[in-house]
What we know:
Elements: E1 2-6, E2 29-32, H1 43-54, H2 58-66, H3 70-80, H4 92-103, E3 108-115, H5 116-126, E4 131-135, H6 144-154, E5 159-163, H7 169-174, E6 177-181, H8 185-194, E7 197-201, H9 209-214, H10 228-232, H11 238-265, H12 267-271, H13 280-283, H14 288-309, H15 311-329, H16 337-357, H17 363-390, H18 406-428, H19 431-436, H20 446-462, H21 470-476, H22 478-495
Parallel strand pairs: 1-7, 2-3, 2-5, 3-4, 5-6, 6-7
Amino acid sequence: MYAQETARGPDEGPGGEGDRADQGGRLPILIVDLDGTLLRSDMLYESFWTAFGRDWTVALTAVRALGQGRAALKQRLAETARLETATLPFDRKVLAYIEAWRAKGGRTALVTASDQSLAEAIADHLKVFDEVHGSDGSRNLKGPAKAAFLSEHFGAGGFVYMGDSAADLPVWQQAAKAVTVNASARLRAEAEAVATEVEHLTTVPQSVRPYIKALRPHQWLKNILVFLPMLAGHQFDAATLLLAAAAFVAYSLIASSVYVVNDMTDLNADRAHPRKRHRPFASGEVPLSHGMLMAAGLFTAGAIVSLSVGPSFFAVVCGYFVLTTAYSLHLKRKMVIDICVLAGLYTMRIVAGAVATGIPLSVWMLAFAIFFFLSLAAVKRQAELVDSARRGTLRARGRGYNVGDLPIITMIAIAAGFVSVLVLVLYLDSPDVRVLYKAPIMLWGIGPVLLFWITRTVMIAHRGHMHDDPLVYAARDRVSQICVVLSLGFALAGTL
């Protein structure tokens, strides 16, 4: 056996004994797998999630097609999905290997278990393959079926095969040389056991960081809202704090499960965005198959924590999950409905905190929250439209707005924000305040601070400097932090 370890840069080419020309002076043909090898993703999952993001009934269609076999499923999804080939996460180092092979006079072929139509679209885009072979709706070109196909077309030992999974072992057994791509230690050993010559290609480092990034832990800051009923009600005992903390954990787990699903359904839109294209699923850093397991695991963990808090809280969390999933799959594309739903999702966190701790929620807080979060939701859309305008795009990708709507969205952000301050001021003149605060007059200082913060936030979004959720942005912004400290200071002074 001959095994060669490589971790090449993009300008380095193939090497090894199996690369030598035959007696006729020709190199054996290089056969390249698609999923997980040339592409840092899997076309079956790509097709499903892209189609599912546009129409959730695709899941039912997929189940029916699967009854006819995996090849039929792949063909049906290929017909339904609208994949944008140019933005797919190709492995640049694998492409460099292929180009170096061609530069030496070798021929190349893309042979994949993905549907023929998708394989041809990718080959037409890359223009580095002499032949293209994929599944055809009845034959699933994978494992032993692929090995038999390649031996029949190119002869046993007449090709070099580049792959990445255990399904490729029967193919490597028939190849003149096996090239593994980002294979595990176990798969490398298995490849060396069946192939006459092996080359190991490492193109991406193994890290847990992309998986953590996919959870969007920075977005958990929004879940601090579950503590608001406890703070507003001045109930700081250990039992209440523990229930609020459990609510925070449950909401964070459930929210992360939805973020994972949202990112898998938004692949095309994310890859067309200058920043979002670096998200773990869009960039191929985390396989979509892993994302499905992550979403299920996070939801299960969140449900268990929610049930430990109480059945009423669990019901609220389930309502949040249903609404936010509907938002991710459909409602975010609906003009006006989307920002109303976003405001409702923010407000539901406060409701969840009240239900978890058993603290009654006042009408004043609900009214303030609805208008305040409607303002933030409009700011979020405002920032996206400003970004689209700067990139010369008339419509915000995956949204129901165009750049011409920007003045109206900005107006909604300002008006809703100012109304929320008006609700706060009216609340300060209510009898409830005199019960909770010894010096209610000190609370009036919060109003001007909020007016300043809302106006400044809208201006920042207008100038194109807001690249994240407004609450997450505020947590990192020094001026916003000062506004929070001032508001808390006024509230504390009112209790003394």
